[in-house]
Amino acid sequence: MRQRELENKITIQNQRLQNYVLLIIIIVVLSASVILLNAFQRKKAYNKLLELEVQKRTGELAESNRELKNFNVKLEQSNNELERFAYIASHDLKSPLRNVISFLNLIERKLKDTSDKDIQEYLRFATDNARQMYNLIQDVLEYSRVSEKEVPVEKVDLNDSLMLVLQNLKEEMQSKQAVVFSKPLPVIEANSVHVLQLFQNLIGNGIKYNHSRKPKVVLNHRMDSANHVFSVIDNGIGISQEYHDQIFQMFKRLHTKEEYPGTGIGLALCKKIIDNLGGKIWLESTPGKGTTFHFSIPKHALQSNAN
256 in helix, strand or coil? Predict the structure, then answer.
């Protein structure tokens, strides 16, 4: 009898310990989310205030031009400082969050045979959210790197870049029976890593946001007097006209994470890369009839990729 009481007492203590561990993990994940969200909210709010001040000063007489220039300098400094802050904050969050994910995985393995379904559900919830946060931090870091002042520009064979992208997307293409077609692509002046990110986001979106029995993405290229002009055409779900400008904003999502996983940074990253090269990106799309993303890259790329 005493043995059974002792076993019951140990079981209760273990249950309490597990609950405390889960509570701590959830608090850590939520705290990391709040830190990152607050950083970007401060950046957005402060930049908006400075932009309004710049607009106000623009309408004043010539003697205010010097003040206007000072505000513009402050705005640029603010952007640079806040982008750097976002990079540092995201970088510093990666390591503890990686440890949290590893710890959660250990707990999952230890409790895999438990009969308590609530604990298993809590663990899955905490693990999924921690991984989403890790992916978000990773994408913020990538966006911050693209915003760096000095990025090497080199000769990039886009045919080689496309082959690497298709290799990266091989598993997703096979699972959805997707195909990608491309005309012969040129050699351009750009950053090879940024080109990979650009192609992978646009082609990957054409496959992901696609309910066709056989998703198809076509990459075309032409030239005008000063630019290479590319088109990425898919037969996916399409995008309503009202969102054509909004989708290039950071964290802008048209669908829930349950429908389509992601962080909402991909297209903002694409626009930043194109802007830094001195080009433009735009789209044509109708819901249910696919999307075509067009983007231009100057024949002679900018030497510095920051505006």
Answer: coil
